[in-house]
Amino acid sequence: MAFLPRAAVVAFMLAVVASLGSAHAQAAGNVGTAALQVALKAQGLYPGTVDGFAGPATAAAVRAVERRASLATDGIAGPLVRRALGPLGRHSLGSRVLRLGCVGWDVSALQFRLAWHGFPSGVFDGAFGGHVQAAVRAYQRFAGLPADGAAGPATLRSLSRHPIPRSPVRLSRPVRAQVGDGFGPRGARFHTGLDLPARYGTAVRAAGAGVVSFAGWVAGYGKLVVVQHPLGVSTLYAHLARFGSRRGERVVARRTLGRVGMTGHASGPHLHFEVRLRGAAVDPSTAIG
């Protein structure tokens, strides 16, 4: 299997995301709305998912803030509502350099944008801790920026201008099953793959040709197989019951890699399937047929 030089991979990837990213970006929701939902959730007023879409639950939570603060109850999160939300309602994204110790609306917006670009930082909580710093550094390396772990103008501009990454290669479905949980926000976190519920022991097949780079146990993932493909793409197959492949093995598409299980953090038998592009988690549904 031939691998392209890094410069060629980067150029190809940028061309792909530029041509395909705009429609996918619409699925990401609005970062300001996501920041609002984080602040509302911290107040115990918003029980929904931090998804960036202002639905009835978001508006109801805003009205609850307005009633508490004796404001006109129009359900619109204007400056007075943001002030009433406390620290998580302050600081618009881009108004300051974000680094360790920062708390605010802008940190929540940054977390949301990082997650959709493939670098989630755990719970959306509006606090710039080590988890956010690690995500910022990972994104900076991905984007070819100095990896200082602080989100200044260059990093924020890059996140704003570059489309959400997508896989530059087509892949096949690793298990014949309907999608359970999809890629994207889930509660106050971000789900980085597809969950494919299937009968325990169902064959899990390689989504494309490549080399097995890992076959072992990872916390949360349980028994995990990782396959490296061309153009910086890798696929992850988690919660396996047992392995059917080993590290260093070259595999063709549809080769059995293991069997569906429920190892790691899994409430029932299913395959957790991820696609990554140079470390960035990308939506598998945009790559699989």
How much strand content do the residues show?
Answer: 15-25%
Name of the CATH superfamily of the largest domain: PGBD-like superfamily/PGBD
Number of beta strands: 11
Structure classification:
alpha+beta
Largest sheet: 9 strands, antiparallel
Low-confidence stretches: 1-25
Question: Which geometry do the CA atoms define?
Answer: globular
Total DSSP helices: 7
* Residue-averaged pLDDT: 91
Radius of gyration: 20 Å
Total number of distinct structural domains = 2
- SSE string: HHHHHHHEEEEEEEEEEE
In CATH terms, what is the architecture of the largest domain?
Orthogonal Bundle
Helix content: 25-40%
- Name of the top-level CATH class of the largest domain: Mainly Alpha
Distance between the termini: 22 Å
CATH topology of the largest domain: Muramoyl-pentapeptide Carboxypeptidase, domain 1
Brief descriptors of the model:
alpha+beta; 289 residues; Glucose Permease (Domain IIA); two-stranded antiparallel ribbon; 9-stranded antiparallel beta sheet; 7 helices; single chain; Muramoyl-pentapeptide Carboxypeptidase, domain 1
Task: Report on this structure.
By secondary structure, the chain is of the alpha+beta class. The chain has two domains: 28-161, PGBD-like superfamily/PGBD (Muramoyl-pentapeptide Carboxypeptidase, domain 1), CATH 1.10.101; 184-286, Distorted Sandwich (Glucose Permease (Domain IIA)), CATH 2.70.70.10. Helix content is 30%, strand content 20%. The protein contains seven helices and eleven strands. It has helices spanning 6-25, 31-42, 56-68, 79-84, 105-116, 130-143, 153-161, and strands spanning 184-186, 189-191, 194-197, 203-205, 210-218, 222-228, 233-243, 250-251, 256-260, 270-277, 280-282. The strands form two sheets. Strands 3, 4, 5, 6, 7, 8, 9, 10 and 11 form a nine-stranded antiparallel sheet that branches. It has a two-stranded antiparallel ribbon with strand order 1-2. A hairpin with a 4-residue loop joins strand 6 (222-228) and strand 7 (233-243). Helix 2 packs across helix 5. The chain is globular, with a radius of gyration of 20 Å. The model is unreliable at 1-25 (pLDDT under 50).
